[in-house]
Amino acid sequence: MSPGTGGALSSGDREHAVVEAVPTELFVNGQWRPSGGGKTFDVEDPSTGKVLRAVADATVEDGMAALDAAVAAQAGWARYPPRERGEILRRAYEVMMARQEDLALLMTLEMGKPVAESRGEIAYAAEFLRWFAEEAVRIDGGFAVAPGGSGRVLVMRQPVGPSLLITPWNFPTAMGTRKIGPAVAAGCTMVLKPASLTPLSMLAVADILAECGLPPGVLNVVPSSSAGRLMEPLIRDGRARKLSFTGSTEVGRLLLEQCAEQIMRTSMELGGNAPFLVFADADLDAAVGGAMVAKMRNIGEACTAANRFYVHAEVVEEFSRRLAEQMGSLRIGRGSDEGVDVGPLIEARAREKVRQLVDDAVARGAQVLVGGEPVDGPGYFYRPTVLVDVPPDAELTSTEIFGPVAPIIAFTDEQQVLAAANDSPFGLVSYVYTSDLNRALRVCERLEAGMVGLNQGLVSNPAAPFGGIKHSGLGREGGAVGIEEFLETKYVAVAT
Ligand code: NAP
Fold it and tell me: In angstroms, what is the span from residue 249 Cα to ligand 1's centroid?
């Protein structure tokens, strides 16, 4: 994808050129090809509801062809020099950054987020390729003298094998590179199924990786309008040795059941319900700023989005007033228009869910400080919303909102707020604002979450281990451990 659209075109022409430049066929064994069934499905712009492009709709036979290609390429790819695997990733990082503007616009058009955020996601996504380019040459093993003196313990690290990757629509590029980066670095081949709402971004990345020298069959991309029908036979086939999934807990649970049959390795990045705790001793400017990031990044459509704000009774009024002021001043509009802060939600169903959750909270006694309703007109917009006096039984305290809504609940006691924060089957991320070091460490230790933002509203970082506990998932992506998910350990008992 290199439309070379520069600044000379009108914004409409530039959007058209960027969308038209993406390959929309299946990417199998290094070739772009139509669906075997000849079918396509439409990808829409959620800010207008208009169709952007039709994308090839993979059949089960297409999926099997992709798996055949991945299996055939596996042995050769595992022997490929690690430095060369790393250099392919490094080149792809450079190309993604050189094309950041076009890739960002493409993502905004299919997903809706403001283009400034899309630029950020492209940089974040590309960074996974750079990070794992550096990790590819650091895969090591071990050698030890057995404790008894005779015999040696040799430990090798080897690629898991052909891997199935399934990604969601909310971070269409980064959720893909967070899996592709370590799989390439470890020497695994892949079949990737992107979300049907946003396949274009991943097709653009596949195109870049091919351009940067990734051998045929190593990465195969099969968009589909019927995910379950396509993926279940690939999982049950038995030749794939790993499934890495990012998406809802509901689908993750189903996939774990399917993987159990083949005792397949799994990584699961699932849903969240992040609590955001503000103690009375917190720096309120920082807490409100952090709340804006933790709530409004990606229009609230993030697994890491703050879902429940617990604010100490001494500061709750001030915090709520300031948050409502900032939320109310955000500019709503098409994400591709510069200066827009809040784009549309992904689809009509998603907006309807947000509307119902807010209406339920209000019916149970919550007060609307700002927002509280959808925006009329085309596209699936919902106003940034702050709710106070939210009762604990309101449905949005236990459901992932996935929209621009901040429910605030007052508390007075540390034990009480920790119990409330942990009273959830999810455990992805929590946020804590306090200036008391002892309290900070105590609370971080006791929060049941895979990640904690301490006095900061953003935890995502390619150099750090991302992931959750409880129903939020299994395994970690990124950081030094990210590559482990794609490696097996082999022990060789050496006679001496
Ligand atoms: P989703 O409905 O679970 O879909 C995720 C992916 O799974 C999509 O590619 C989807 O395909 C596919 N899929 C759906 N049903 C399937 C099935 N039966 N078999 C195989 N694949 C299937 O989730 P989503 O709505 O796209 O994403 C939002 C969820 O992802 C939220 O819960 C969010 O918290 C979570 N998430 C977690 C993380 C994390 O790192 N923990 C990061 C981002 C998002 P289709 O698109 O065709 O339905």
Answer: 8
Q: How many domains does the chain have?
A: 2
Residue 319 to residues 198, 309, 335, 342, 488, Cα–Cα distance (Å)? 36, 10, 28, 21, 49
Q: 169-216: per-residue pLDDT in tens? A: 999 999 999 999 999 999 999 999 999 999 999 999 999 999 999 999
| Same domain, yes or no: 396 and 450 | yes
Q: Is residue 247 lining ligand 1, measured as CB closer than 6 Å?
A: yes
Nearest CA, atom 10, ligand 1: 195
| Residue 175 CB less than 6 A away from ligand 1 | yes
Residues 101 and 53 in one domain: yes
Residue 134: active-site member: no
Could you give the 3-state DSSP secondary structure of residue 291? helix
- Residue 342 carries which side chain, given as an amino acid letter? V
Q: What is the CATH number of the domain that holds 288?
A: 3.40.309.10
Asked if 311 and 388 sit in the same domain, the reply is yes
Annotation marks residue 269 as catalytic: yes
Beta strands 265-269; 473-474: pairing state: antiparallel
CB atoms within 10 A of CB 317: 13
Q: Tell me the three state secondary structure of residue 317.
A: helix
**Would the pTM of this model clear 0.90, i.e. be above it?**
yes
Distance 439 CA to ligand 1 centre (A): 36
DSSP string spanning 55-110?
EE---HHHHHHHHHHHHHHHHHHHHS-HHHHHHHHHHHHHHHHHTHHHHHHHHHHH
Nearest C-alpha neighbor of 387 from the set 374, 404, 375, 399: 404
Host domain of residue 281: 274-461
Which three-class secondary structure state does DSSP give residue 253? helix
